[in-house]
Amino acid sequence: MPLPAPRRLLLALCWLPVTLLADDSLTAERVQELETLLYQDCGSCHGMTLRGGLGPALPTSRMNAYSQDGLAALILHGIPGTAMPGWKGLLTEEEARWLADHLQNDNPLDE
Ligand code: HEC
């Protein structure tokens, strides 16, 4: 027997936060680790503040030349024939996408 409509609505509302959380499955702890990785590991070549070093600076203007998918792929696979390594072994696709999003929309160079 189907639930009466108000109950179904209530049930749907209860599931909403679960669905939202499932969509964004990186934990706060992992996000913290990714930020540390960005400054320390990426920073070892791109500069601790991403202003450039062995690797070029990574300002928003430059990062937005890539699509977010393209930037995530670049991070995962590196740039063959250059010192830019691929991070596939260390990062999941979702994590690479988080870094790409961070570089495009929350870039430390803009602060
Ligand atoms: C071992 C040094 C090294 C490390 C570590 C490194 N990179 Fe790079 N990266 C480079 C070099 C060198 C280039 C420029 C390659 C070229 O000549 O095109 C580059 C290029 C890039 C580019 C393209 C820049 C542009 O202007 O198009 C992005 C984006 C990038 N790196 C992001 C990252 C991120 C994110 C990390 C950490 C997950 C990282 N890099 C770690 C050396 C490094």
Automatic annotation (TrEMBL):
<keyword id="KW-0732">Signal</keyword>
<keyword id="KW-0349">Heme</keyword>
<dbReference type="GO" id="GO:0009055">
    <property type="term" value="F:electron transfer activity"/>
</dbReference>
<keyword id="KW-0479">Metal-binding</keyword>
<protein>
    <submittedName>
        <fullName>Cytochrome c55X</fullName>
    </submittedName>
</protein>
<keyword id="KW-0408">Iron</keyword>
<dbReference type="GO" id="GO:0046872">
    <property type="term" value="F:metal ion binding"/>
</dbReference>
<feature type="signal peptide">
    <location>
        <begin position="1"/>
        <end position="22"/>
    </location>
</feature>
<dbReference type="Pfam" id="PF13442">
    <property type="entry name" value="Cytochrome_CBB3"/>
</dbReference>
<dbReference type="InterPro" id="IPR036909">
    <property type="entry name" value="Cyt_c-like_dom_sf"/>
</dbReference>
<feature type="domain" description="Cytochrome c">
    <location>
        <begin position="29"/>
        <end position="107"/>
    </location>
</feature>
<dbReference type="InterPro" id="IPR009056">
    <property type="entry name" value="Cyt_c-like_dom"/>
</dbReference>
<dbReference type="GO" id="GO:0020037">
    <property type="term" value="F:heme binding"/>
</dbReference>
